[in-house]
Amino acid sequence: MGNPxxxxxxxxxxxxxxxxxxxxxxxxxxxxxxxxxxxxxxxxRGVVQTKFRQTFVTVPATLRLFxxxxxxxxxxxxxxxxxxxxxxxxxxxxxxxxLAGDGFDTVIKAKAAxxxxxxxxxxxxxxxxxxxxxxxxxxxxxxxxxxGVERERKLPQPTFNLNQLTSMFAAxxxxxxxxxxxxxAHTLGFSHCNKFAKRIYSFSSSNPVDPTLNRTYxxxxxxMCPRNVDPRIAIDMDPVTPRTFDNVYFKNLQQGLGxxxxxxxxxxxxxxxxxxxAWAQNSAAFERAFVTAMTKLGRVGVKTGSRGTSEPCATxxxxxxxxxxxxxxxxxxxxxxxLLLPPCxxxxxxxxFLCSCPLRRSISWVVPAQASRKLPRSxxxxxxxxxx
Length: 388
Description:
By secondary structure, this protein is of the alpha+beta class.
């Protein structure tokens, strides 16, 4: 592994930039808040560390939120704005519905903590807070056990080939090397089964299973994601080190363990294979490339001066979620979600509930055994594993 301090310091330079409400002549600079809110980085870091201790989901959720925000109309925090009236917001586009609530909650809590300091109130943009939080979650994950519906198809799809990936990233000023480095964000987080089902069941008429997929891994995926599986089932994207930000992603590709077509193609295509092989052997080289790519990503479509609009971070809307045997809707700005995790054995799937509050009222649900549970009003974070 490379030196964590070097990567963290580099990410500080990469992501500590002002993305909104910047005088046009000033453009981007690291010390923009030196006089208006000098302690902003420590405040955001403290919130992120607290969220990280509560749930590891904070890491992939925040990282994905940053990527999805920057890739659609630039890094302006528009992905966190809620739908209103007849306007369907960016975060409610189908490509963004899988974004975990913990990423949004991280931004909300960090913004609240910053605004709690009188000197900082309404001085730090949501976009900057998201950028700082992203820097911090990547640093934490490296430590041993670490705009609307019309904007369709502006995010890379799991089925993309190298030409499609390269073209989409190039449209955002990112090189093929940047694209390969940023793809390694898939070393963290989860994916729902429907995102890769075609690879393991109906790849082609002659090959039901994608031949580039490791055979043993394909069998495991079929066991975890059987046909007509519950759409809430999710699995780790990195089957080896899913809770560590590292270069194992590239080693996995060498073994045919890329979950998406867009992952595995980085190794199967001769044009990108040398980079994959090099970074699989040299984690420090990968980390340097990732920092460079994140720096460039953080500047995609940056709105300076009078460009863009100002929206409060807290204009999120809660999302409906359901569980087997019943359903409930989160209220009062709470972010709740449920995932049906792959079974440890054919008869014991796990149902995982995550709720980041506070709640304005209790939430109740019924599990298959007809046992009911209630969240107390004071619940701040709930994580239940129920064996059916």
